[in-house]
Amino acid sequence: MYTKNDYIAVFDSGMGGISVLRQLKKLMPCENYVYFGDSANAPYGSRTTEEVRALSLAAAEKLTSEFPVKALVVACNTATAAAIDVLRKTYPDLIVVGIEPALKLAYDSFPGGNLGVLATEVTLREEKFDALMHRFDGNCTVYKIPAPGVANLIEAGKNDSPEMIALLRQLLTPYVGKLDALVLGCTHYPFITRNIASIMGPKTQLLHGGKGTARETRRRLEKAGLLNDGDGSITILNSSPDPKMLKLANALLTGGKLSFED
Question: Catalytic: which of 96, 142, 181, 186?
Fold first, then answer.
C-alpha cells in the first residue's frame, strides 16, 4: 500500500535527470524525492540496448528496495527508449513515468516545419523513437542528430568548456539556419541550452520533455490520491565513488557554479 509520504524515485544514467528533478520539484514542492545518478556506468547512450535495460532494472531495484517508493520516474531518454516497457512489466503496481523527446510539442508548434532531434545513439536507433516520430501528422522533416560525447562532458562538469563549444559546433553547424526547432532528446542537454542557442541562433526554438514528464507524474499521482501536502525533501545518490559527483549534482540542482577544482 502506497502512502502520500512515500518517495518519488528518479533515476538517470548520471547527471542529466537533475534537469527533470528540477521540473518535478518546481511543480510538486511538497514531495519527497530520491535521485539516483548512475555516473559509474555513464553514459548509457553508447551502450547496447541489453546493457541499458540491465542497468535500468538495477537502478530501479536499488531505489525500490532502499526507499518506500510510490512513483518511479525514468529521467533518461535512453533508458526510457530501451527499458520503459520492461520496467512497467516488472513493477505493474507502481506508477512508472518515462521521458520522451518533445516531438509532439515540436510538431504542434511547427506543422510542416524542419525539426532536429539532438540525442544519444541509443535513443535515435530504438523502435520506440521511430514510432514516436511517425505518430503525429504534419509533414514535418525530422533530422536525427546523434551527439556522442556531449553527455560525457556534462558528467565532467565541463558545460562551458572549450571542448564542449567545439563539439557542439561540430555537431550543429550543418543545421544552422535550417531548423525551426531543435528537440533536446537527452536530459543532460538542458544544462547547455545557452551554448546550443548561441550556435543555432534565435530562429531555432529549443524544446525538451522535462516539463511534460513532471506534469504526467503529477497527473498520475493526483489520480491515485497520492499527492503529498507536507514538507518535501530531496535525497541524492550516485553510483560513482567520487564524492565530487554529489557536489556536481547539487550544483546542477541549485544552479550553482560547476567546478571540480575544489
Answer: 186
Order of strands, edge to edge, in the sheet holding 233-238?
95-98, 69-74, 7-12, 32-37, 233-238
SS (HEC) of 120-142: CHHHHHCHHHHHHHCCCCCCCEE
What is the rounded CA–CA span in Å between residue 208 and residue 154? 17
Name the CA radius of gyration of the chain, rounded: 18
Closest CA to 40 of 58, 25, 24: 58
The 3-state DSSP class for residue 97 equals strand
- Please compute, for residue 25, the number of CA atoms within 13 A of its CA located in the half-sphere on the CB side: 18
Respond yes or no: is residue 76 known to be catalytic. yes
80-127 pLDDT tens trace: 999 999 999 999 999 999 998 898 899 999 999 999 999 988 888 887
Residue of 205, 209, 194 lying closest to 19 (CA atoms)? 209
Name, in order, each residue with C-beta under 8 angstroms of 26's C-beta and a sequence gap of 6 or more. Answer: 214
**Angle 18-27/210-223 helices, nearest 10 degrees?**
50
Residues of the chain above pLDDT 70, percent: 96
Q: How many residues does the chain have?
A: 262
Which grid cell sits at 13?
544514467
Q: Report whether 15 contacts 154 (CB < 8 A).
A: yes
186 catalytic? Reply is: yes
Give CA–CA dist 202/94, Å, rounded: 41
Q: Which of 9, 74, 76, 156 is catalytic?
A: 76
Q: What is the pTM of this model?
A: 0.90
